[in-house]
Q: What sequence folds into this?
């Protein structure tokens, strides 16, 4: 006998994806992020879609949190690895972003992730702490961990390498 599958729906809204870009001129990376958290800047559309949020920033550090949802599941019955990967990419990138001077930018060159435990609905809230390991003139590296908030269990860990793009000359 075939199992009856019920369709589900999901609706969400997002704000202008360029709000952060427009707020950036004249600010260091850390100033922009702190101002954004303080002033309640809207989450970028990808973060709204995955319901992840920036929780805190400091020089060379960033923390994101999220909650796995049923619509993140893959065909093998666990949350798709892209959820943990996105948390890591976000926390590691934002950690690097906190080190940027006025007008500097960055782009990710490489990300490496190790998935340690599956994430399921039972995992609850997850937290990703990212920290810069090295910040040079052209290259920055960072590392981070995704943990289950309730149990403290490690779920994934990873590293990134970013290219630092200098401020444009006037």
A:
């Amino acid at each position: 006998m075939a199992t009856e599958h019920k369709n589900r729906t999901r609706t969400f809204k997002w704000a202008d994806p360029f709000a952060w870009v427009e707020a950036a001129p004249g600010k260091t990376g850390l100033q922009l992020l702190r101002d954004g958290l303080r002033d309640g800047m809207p989450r970028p559309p990808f973060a709204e879609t995955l319901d992840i949020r920036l929780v805190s920033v400091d020089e060379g550090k960033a923390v994101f949190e999220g909650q796995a949802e049923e619509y993140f599941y893959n065909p093998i019955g666990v949350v798709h690895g892209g959820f943990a990967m996105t948390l890591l990419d976000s926390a590691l990138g934002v950690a690097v972003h906190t080190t940027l001077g006025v007008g500097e930018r960055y782009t990710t060159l490489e990300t490496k992730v190790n998935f340690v435990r599956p994430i399921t609905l039972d995992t609850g809230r997850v937290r990703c702490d990212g920290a810069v390991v090295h910040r040079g003139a052209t290259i920055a590296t960072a590392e981070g961990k995704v943990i289950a908030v309730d149990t403290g269990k490690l779920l994934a860990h990873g590293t990134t390498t970013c290219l630092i793009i200098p401020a444009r000359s006037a």
Q: What stands out?
A: Residues 81-97 form the longest helix (17 residues). The radius of gyration is 17 Å. Residues 19-165 form a domain with the Thiol Ester Dehydrase; Chain A fold (CATH 3.10.129.10). The chain has a mean pLDDT of 95.
